[in-house]
Amino acid sequence: MWESTPFADLVRDAVAGEGMTYRLLAEKAIDPQTQQALTHNTLWKIAHGEAVKISPWIVRAVAAAVGKSERDVQIAAAEQYIGLVAGDPFGASDEQAAVVVAHVPGLRRSDMPKVEELLRGWASGSVSVQ
């Protein structure tokens, strides 16, 4: 069975520094949109793979705490909780648009020719979104 804990890894890595604790990390774990704060207990649960009801504000609070972008933390949470790997395997992102392809683990760019064809069509303007 495939198992990955990239969301938990982000929190564990953040407390791995000398003098860092879950309580200190919780002081930075505040969602910038709602101002909701995570407790040190919730951060510990995330780091140890215990059940936590994930919501967008929790992802944003973790991003603030660990100093990563919201997008990077969303990708890590998606991989850990629903088993999808997400990223830009085609190098299609730029300053104006982020292209994120969610796929099952183990797929490579060459395994997704239809996705690449679709992205190239959008980029060329020959495929429009209705």
Task: Name a few traits of the molecule.
130 residues, mainly alpha, two-stranded antiparallel ribbon, 6 helices, 5% strand, elongated
Strand tally is 2
Shape descriptor reads elongated
Strand line-up in the sheet with most strands: 1-2
Residue share in β-strands:
under 5%
Low-confidence stretches: none
SS-based class: mainly alpha
Helix content: 40-55%
Cα-atom Rg, whole angstroms? 17 Å
Main sheet record: 2 strands, antiparallel
Order of H and E elements: HHHHHEEH
Tally the helices: 6
Query: Mean of residue pLDDT?
Result: 87
Structure description:
It contains six helices and two strands. It has helices at residues 6-14, 22-26, 40-47, 56-66, 70-82, 113-124; strands at residues 85-87, 101-103. Strands 1-2 form a two-stranded antiparallel sheet. Helix 1 crosses helix 3 (40-47) and helix 1 (6-14) crosses helix 5. The radius of gyration is 17 Å and the shape is elongated. The model has no long low-confidence stretch (mean pLDDT 87).
Topology (elements, then pairings):
Elements: H1 6-14, H2 22-26, H3 40-47, H4 56-66, H5 70-82, E1 85-87, E2 101-103, H6 113-124
Antiparallel strand pairs: 1-2
Helix pairs in contact: 1-3, 1-5, 4-5
